[in-house]
Amino acid sequence: MLKLVWVPKKYKNFSFREMAEDASHILKGCKEHEKEIERLLADSMILQNKIANLTEEEARHNLEILIPWLEMQFPSLKEGD
User: What residue ranges carry the coiled-coil annotation (predicted)?
Assistant: First the structure.
């Protein structure tokens, strides 16, 4: 049995392929923005050490803690990615 369904005019040329392509494009953009945000966060944490006017030993200690934490929070920050 065939059912007729009224479809609003703006959905007449609806395409799942286009929707999938748009979703893929949006996801790719989100991943790029996420990487940029991760890098900015890492840079800001390093800059905070510089602003705090820490000795080299204190800054090294902070970075020894921050870098593994950042890598755990943002796996794409690891070298080679």
Answer: 30-57
Break the chain into its structural domains and give their ranges. 34-81
Q: Which tokens hold the place of 16?
A: 């799942």
pTM higher than the cut 0.70: no
Distance CA 32, CA 39 (A): 11
The pLDDT, as a whole number, for residue 20 is: 84
What is 19-69 written as a DSSP string?
A: HHHHHHHHHHHHHHHHHHHHHHHHHHHHHHHHHTT--HHHHHHHHHHHHHH
- Of the candidates 59, 34, 61, which has an alpha carbon nearest to the alpha carbon of residue 47? 59
Position 45: which residue type? Answer: M
